[in-house]
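4.2 Preliminary Data

To establish feasibility before requesting continued support, the project team ran the inverse folding procedure on a target of 124 residues. The structure was first converted into the token representation described in Section 3, and no sequence information of any kind was made available to the design step. The complete token record follows.
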């Protein structure tokens, strides 16, 4: 039997076009269809959605600073404990991750603080 690790490494190094050609060749050689695998994909997606519902830790991402940037910088400082310059830079960077791996309740409270300051934040 061929060395499976070598095959996997070869597949990893292929371009999208080469992978497409490989799939077509396998379909022709073995008389199978990749469509059967595509049918199974939604079930896997459903499992991923269920796993996301059970997620216990979230990242708080600042998506829009809004009109009151000073208030938002204060909230960033309060949440992160960073200095003024670091907090300002974080607030001015689009889609900044303000806090990582936060419990859901705490993360929702942070999002609420940003909303009160006129900013938009979300959990990811």
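Position-by-position output of the design step:
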């Amino acid at each position: 039997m061929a060395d499976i690790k070598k095959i996997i490494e070869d597949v990893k190094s292929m371009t999208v076009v080469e992978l497409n050609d490989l799939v077509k060749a396998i379909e022709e050689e073995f008389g199978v269809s990749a469509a059967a695998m595509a049918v199974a994909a939604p079930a896997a997606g459903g499992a991923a959605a269920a796993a996301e519902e059970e997620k216990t830790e979230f990242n708080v991402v600042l998506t829009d600073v809004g009109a009151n940037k000073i208030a938002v910088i204060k909230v960033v400082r309060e949440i992160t404990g960073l200095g003024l310059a670091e907090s300002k830079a974080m607030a001015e960077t689009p889609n900044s991750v303000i806090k990582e791996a936060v419990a859901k309740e705490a993360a929702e409270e942070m999002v609420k603080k940003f909303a009160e300051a006129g900013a938009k934040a979300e959990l990811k």
